[in-house]
Design goal:
This protein has 345 residues and is an alpha/beta fold. Helix content is 28%, strand content 20%. It has a seven-stranded mixed beta sheet with strand order 9-8-7-10-11-12-13, sandwiched between helices. The protein has a four-stranded parallel beta sheet with strand order 1-4-5-6, sandwiched between helices. The chain has a two-stranded antiparallel ribbon with strand order 2-3. Helix 5 links the parallel strand 7 and strand 8.
């Protein structure tokens, strides 16, 4: 009986859950799958057919393979089953929004039920996700590798400024700026579709006309939110702008940020992130944008996207994953891998 078994799922678990919010129309068309079952989709809009195409590619196959392999090892009486999941899927669905479900917590429960006893991952979208698990989670950081890339591969990086494309990314940007001894800039008022502002077609509470309200239950009227005009807090004129974030999926917000920075005088623009999902038309949009280079790690495979867009560069983080596996297997401390690492990285 093995003492420990390391379980590495395929790294293709990288697609966004956002597409599943598309609303189908009335009349379906049919698409026969090789396995014999049929997937029905609407054909009134391009979004519906694209949704059907993505579903038939079965983006959750890797998750199911991981669960089945873990359960097989559990029934074979493996003492420890360690899952190496560099990009944790559904990590953006980690909060309650309106009446939505917390999918990330569901996946954590499924992994525990399947038999996993430990997980190695990298740059969770929210650090609090670790609390969903009933077993240890080592959330490694890619920041040392990205910082090294900046120092070694970006000419004249001392003339750079670290940029947060929204106030939500300010902490990560500040951490990078402090380590590199560089200035910091924040784009405020960006016309972005944040997770909190996403419209899922429902209202809570529902809008009811002529509703009877008890006089004692009247609530004060809340003013509607309005985004302020776009401003850049910080000086980027004549500087290299380096936008940092954790995930690059739909790149519209990054392209818009790059345009703003160009208008403010930045002469070169880099985008750096841990997980390069780069879905849909991301490679084409990057190639046609003011962005000079997009740097991501290999937590998610993106070879096809690199062929479509030479601006995409890859940083290898396999070294830290292999060292984490070795240390866990030998019962050594993991503290070495987190030296000089802050919560905001």
């Amino acid at each position: 009986m093995p003492k420990k078994l390391l379980l590495l799922p395929p790294l293709s678990v990288s697609s966004s859950f956002r597409a599943l919010r598309a609303r189908p129309a009335a009349f379906p068309t049919m698409n026969a799958a090789r396995t014999g079952y049929r997937v029905f989709s609407a054909n009134s809009t391009a979004a519906c057919t694209e949704l059907a195409k993505r579903i038939t590619e079965d983006v959750n196959t890797a998750v199911m393979e991981l669960l089945i392999m873990a359960y097989a090892l559990k029934t074979a009486c493996a003492r420890n089953i360690i899952g190496v999941i560099p990009y944790f899927p559904y990590s953006k669905q980690s909060k309650m929004r309106k009446r939505g479900s917390i999918v990330c917590k569901l996946l954590a429960s499924m992994l525990a039920k399947a038999g996993l006893t430990h997980i190695i991952t990298m740059d969770l979208h929210q650090k609090e996700i670790q609390g969903f698990f009933s077993f240890p989670v080592d959330n490694l950081r890619a920041s040392p590798f990205l910082l090294q890339y900046i120092q070694e591969e970006i000419p004249n990086y001392r003339n750079a400024v670290i940029v947060a494309k929204s106030p939500d990314a300010a902490k990560r940007a500040q951490s990078y700026a402090e380590r590199l001894r560089l200035g910091l800039a924040v784009i405020h008022g960006e016309a972005q579709c944040t997770e909190l502002d996403m419209d899922d077609g429902r209202h809570s509470p529902p809008m009811v006309k002529n509703a009877t309200v008890h006089p004692g239950l009247e609530l004060p009227l809340m003013m509607a939110k309005e985004k302020p005009p776009i401003t850049v807090v910080g000086d980027v004129g004549g500087r290299i702008a380096i936008i940092v974030d954790d995930i690059i999926d739909d790149v519209e917000s990054f392209v818009a940020a790059a345009e703003i920075l160009k208008e403010r005088g930045a002469y070169k623009i880099y985008v750096m992130a841990t997980h390069g999902i780069l879905s849909a038309d991301a490679p084409r949009l990057i190639e046609e944008s003011s962005i000079d280079e997009v740097v991501v790690t290999n937590t998610v495979p993106h070879e096809v996207q690199k062929l479509q867009c030479p601006k995409i560069k890859t940083v290898d983080i396999s070294l830290i994953l292999s060292e984490a596996i070795r240390r866990i297997h030998n019962g050594e401390s993991m503290a070495y891998l987190f030296r000089n690492i802050t919560v905001d990285d």
